[in-house]
């Protein structure tokens, strides 16, 4: 059922949209960072431009925090310094991603117009002297933002240095002000059509919350006890839409004047306040900021997941790593630096997962202000440093990787992830706070990542026909059309694996009546009646899988926080050793098979915990517990085996010891460990684009190093 042709570039759907390729076809992989010349004198600008050139930098993001200089007093303009900077960069062959400076309004704005400042949930108005001090719903802020954007674009639209536009920075501000209340009401009116519709959706007969006038409806604010969960959920969506409107109105001003160059803004991975699926179509190029913690042993697996999300948000198109740290950040409690080797590894990992540009925050370390101790491409100690030599080295590596440009990856496996469902599942007052949705997505993704299996992220309602396997670690909210889509996927021969606490609630976060997973219980052949957060004794779960080929458990897995009271519906099927479990041989739906069951305590003894069932040509699994890592891994290993999923090496998916990723016709092997790892690569000689070394049979990947292998002779 895999149809790779359907992942060809989507030029049919977006014929006129500017893309990154105009830039990358000319410059190769993009390389650079945020450049804040307003902090430096002219001599330093000159030194910067020369050093950038020497390091292979070909793109810098300029002007992100320059509003107070560009507009020193309301309505005044001071562009002279920026003219000079852009001319200088252009003279040195460095392209510019020019930012609208709207992330940090000048102090005069908050001083003269306090209503532009955001108000928190407790009613406290946040102040200037930091950044991000704006309310997305303030028409005064938005008016000033539109004006400076218009003037900036008018001034530089013909400047040859400017090759891309960047709106604001990390849009993510929440506001609970009175102006926000007005905008929230308008949004709700559009959604529900009437106050009656809102009362119905919010279930306001509960606790006497019924609204009789729109003026009574407010954003969630500090209240004596729990807030209405649908009100919370709607406010999340509203906030995401309000920020998107801020982005779009600046984007539209740019587009009107410059339809040719791409417009972007920098995302923040699995950011909880913005539904990036809903935004993705608004960006010509998806960009992301990523700051994996070098002391977290799981951070590179998580980074790979985020990179897969970024690629998927853009429909598979190349994306940009817009910001990362060269070495240490300054905002954790204890900021352990990265080695240059680790910095290189992380950068090339992003390239492997679809990035066509690698940038940093920031070019030159700031001497003053809140980020003095954040690392930079040019540190306080200057160019004669290991950090800067690492930067120069990476520039050379990226130049060697020019053949990567535009390459796409192909996945037969997808992970379904939905922001609204995430928001609702972690809202207040549920069975447990220990189910962290993104953490679950990470754990499920990790099992694939370790086995070199390519993964896309999808929404449950997306077209799924190109995938063989869809994993849904948690879909607490599941709309009827989305459930029908998953059902059709299985009917079409796909395998669906559904995680715990899924298919519980409607889009309005009302609990669906019936045994769960309510709409899909018949698909998995089992259903649940009760969610069971566990006491300190936890629960033992037994399965043959725990001791399987990839299993590391002695037959018993200890679940310590959450399980569900499940039963098989319609009796148990037979687990055929040929993988024909749950089928009567005719391909018609059959009984479910228990894959794992509880061994204690009384009342749950022997109850199913993990089940699977064949349904037509497809299969459906249900995982009714937060399994410990090794047990979850064993389940997913079995799913991969059963579905015949291959690794990037073309072999049946099994742990590889390195990260293996295929992009276009290139094979990336990334060794995240401190020891060399040997990888079987077949007998055809493969050339490493980074070193020109030729490998065949076995390739040895040195510690904290990367091979980028091609069949094309060098
Ligand atoms: C990002 C931000 C940058 C800089 C960086 C430091 O979130 O966009 O401006 O503050 O963090 O890590």
Tell me about this structure:
The chain is an alpha/beta fold. The protein folds into three domains: 31-172 and 234-404, TIM Barrel (Alpha-Beta Barrel), CATH 3.20.20.80; 413-643, Rossmann fold (3-Layer(aba) Sandwich), CATH 3.40.50; 659-711, Golgi alpha-mannosidase II (Immunoglobulin-like), CATH 2.60.40.1180. The protein is 30% helix and 19% strand. The strands form four sheets. It has a nine-stranded parallel beta sheet. Strands 11-10-12-13-20-19-18-15-16 form a nine-stranded mixed beta sheet. A five-stranded antiparallel beta sheet has the order 21-22-25-23-24. Helix 6 (139-156) packs parallel to helix 9 (229-257) and helix 12 (340-352) packs parallel to helix 13. The chain is globular, with a radius of gyration of 27 Å. The structure holds beta-D-galactopyranose (GAL). The site of beta-D-galactopyranose has 9 residues, from loops.
